[in-house]
Amino acid sequence: MEKGNSAPQRLRQKINAILSGDDNLANTETRISGWIRTARMQKTFTFAEVNDGSCLANLQVIIDQSFPDYEKITEQLSTGASLTVDGLIVKSPGQNQKFELQAGAITIHGTCPSDYPLQKKRHSFEFLRTIAHLRPRTNTQGAVARVRSRLAFATHSFFQERGFNYLQSPIITASDCEGAGQMFKVTSLDLENLPKQDGAIDHSQDFFHKPTFLTVSGQLNAEAYACALSDVYTFGPTFRAENSHTMRHVAEFWMVEPELAFAELPDIAACAQDYIQHLVKDILENCKSDMAFFDNFIEKGLITRLEKVASCDFARLTYTEAIELLEKSGKKFEYKPEWGIDLQTEHERYLAEEHCKSPLFIVDYPKEIKAFYMRDNDDGKTVAAMDLIVPHIGEIIGGAQREERLPILEKKLADHNLPKEAYEWYLDLRRFGTVPHGGFGLGFERMVRFITGVENIRDVSAFPRVPGHCEF
Ligand code: 4AD
Ligand code: MG
Questions:
Q1: 200 by DSSP, 3-state: which?
Q2: What's the rounded Cα separation, in Å, for the pair 42 and 65?
Q3: 8 Å CB contact between 363 and 318
Q4: Looking at residue 248, which CATH number applies to its domain?
Q5: Taking each helix axis from N to C terminus, what angle separates 302-311 and 265-286, rounded to the nearest 10 degrees?
């Protein structure tokens, strides 16, 4: 094994810095580290394509046969091996890259035997899910990870630049925000030996002295902080124990939840449109080569589709208008559209993709199908709810103006069969200086799908948790 010189690791340059560097980089010395994607032995030299995850592109390393221990080194350069190379950056004669590296010294950190599952060929996404610990080394998953990371950065910058405070809301909770009963239980009781009282589990002996769960949403806590700091957002993991086997659902996902005080539904919708457009523009500007890759290999026309989203005004329909349009559409839907039903994905997709051909806010849903906290409209039938539907994905955002009037909120809790005692603190926000307010939740994985064109949510979540699967 050839040892590199003793220069410290931090002299290392990332490959994206080299490949995007200017002409002055030519004929300078550098150090890079990474993993071999492929190595090709020629008559008098060997090419190794090295990737360090800093960008989609590999850096081509050239090892001349005059290299000390040439045979011994090159036989270790198999796909997947990790190495550090010191060498000279030279202009590449090839079309595909600006620079290549002439190796001066090589340190192999780890060799990689031929049973490495990521040999140079196309692997199906299904297969890659079974090796989720290795798949970030593939082009698609590397690009998804970089875009996802940038989306998180752009989320923080969007809200921070507009004076929102970032709230870290709790993960363990005693209240079911959505009232849908899809919560994972959290307990420290011995499941083999549950304490019982009158036939029921005695939660007074549990860690929190009551039943607790993983949160489905940070909204209720965000409301408390919005009713003090005016504008806040959460960005954290949320959990839903719904037995859905679809391309849109995972049991653990990240949600971005802004909450705005002194705001009504149109203000909340305007914030949602600005936020989505900010994300799209930021990614098109800052993730160019990853986006070109998705446009080429995942969804043809992706960049044009997103450019339209970045500049168009989002459409808006009331739920009642949406139902009328669906009824008049002449389309055969699996679920018949009629006033009062929850809109199905097939309905949402028709409206966004065929009718509006743009992202679409649907507002003012029947109160029976929406959560207790949504503000009653004057018609007595609907609430100030707001879903954002986008082509290809369906629902990406769910939000609402919140019911800020104490007596109405108390009645709504009762109508939803929710125990008032558990929500006393939430009612306090209406008792003490109540304000019109509202917000929304963006499903972060659904946003990654929308931006990358990757169809299945299991391929944009690093280690997806879905019914029956919690590996890695
Ligand atoms: O519509 P939802 O249930 O709304 C709320 O939780 C509100 N409390 C948000 C708020 O107003 N602060 O969920 C919001 C979004 C959905 O639009 C969807 O994008 C995503 O969260 N989502 C899921 N994403 C992946 N897998 C699941 N199982 C999801 N369930 C919801
Ligand atoms: Mg929803």
A1: strand
A2: 10
A3: yes
A4: 3.30.930.10
A5: 140
Taking the CA of 178 as reference, the closest ligand is 1
What per-residue confidence (pLDDT) applies to 349? 92
Interval 274-295: pLDDT, tens: 999 999 999 999 999 999 999 9
Model confidence at 11, pLDDT cuts 50, 70, 90, reads confident
Q: Does residue 120 sit within a domain? A: no
Residue with the smallest CA separation from ligand 1 atom 2 is 398
116 is a domain residue: no
Spell out the residues 6+ positions from residue 402 whose beta carbon is closer than 8 angstroms to its own: 223, 373, 374, 375, 437, 438, 439
Q: Is the pTM of this model over 0.85?
A: yes
Distance CA 220, CA 427 (A): 11
Q: For residue 431, what are the domain limits? A: 135-459
Q: Which residues surround ligand 1 with Cβ inside 6 Å?
A: 177-178, 217, 219, 240, 242, 249-250, 253, 255, 257, 395-400, 439-441, 443, 445-446
What CATH number did the domain enclosing 27 receive? 2.40.50.140
Which of 395, 451, 454, 466 is the best mutation target for the ligand 1 pocket, counting ligand atoms within 8 Å of the beta carbon and taking the most?
Answer: 395
Tell me: the pLDDT tens digits for 41-68?
Answer: 998 999 999 999 999 999 999 999 999 8
Averaged pLDDT of the chain: 95
Residue with the smallest CA separation from ligand 1 atom 24 is: 443
